[in-house]
Amino acid sequence: MTFQKAVKYDAGKPMWRLLQWRALRRVAEVATAGAKKYSPDNWKSFPPDEARIRYTDAMLRHTAAWLIGERYDPESGQPHLAHIAWNALSLLEFEEGITPPPSSPPPTPPVAPSS
């Protein structure tokens, strides 16, 4: 069997293979614990301004604990760094425009102005 030269137009696309998957697993474990404690998409239910305050405060509490030498959150048993990452990702999601929970209808896309 002979192969022709393959072509794949992926220049400029994100290189997902570069992510730290072990660390992301810890973040997923934090997310899973939160989903069990509250509900899977509860974190998306806050208005963006309130969410920014709550998740920034939580991220800073975990950061302070980590900076004074506490490596694991006593309530969840997960690393404080995983909690910091989860809160940072949640803030980023709000900054980027949060995705509605699956049970919500998708937002109507804005209509581009006509020229």
Q: Could you describe the 3D structure shown?
A:
- This protein has 115 residues and is an all-alpha fold.
- The chain contains three helices and no strands.
- It has helices at residues 21-37, 48-67, 80-96.
- The protein has a domain at 39-99.
Rg result: 19 Å
What fraction strand?
under 5%
Helix content: 40-55%
Largest sheet: none
How large is the count of helical segments? 3
Helix and strand composition category: mainly alpha
Which residue ranges are poorly predicted, with pLDDT under 50 across at least 5 consecutive positions?
A: none
Mean pLDDT: 88
Summarize this structure as a short list of keywords or feature phrases:
115 residues, mainly alpha, 3 helices, 47% helix, extended
Task: Give the topology, please.
Blueprint: H1 21-37, H2 48-67, H3 80-96
Helix pairs in contact: 1-3, 2-3
Q: In summary, what is this structure?
A:
The chain is mainly α. The chain is 47% helix and 0% strand.
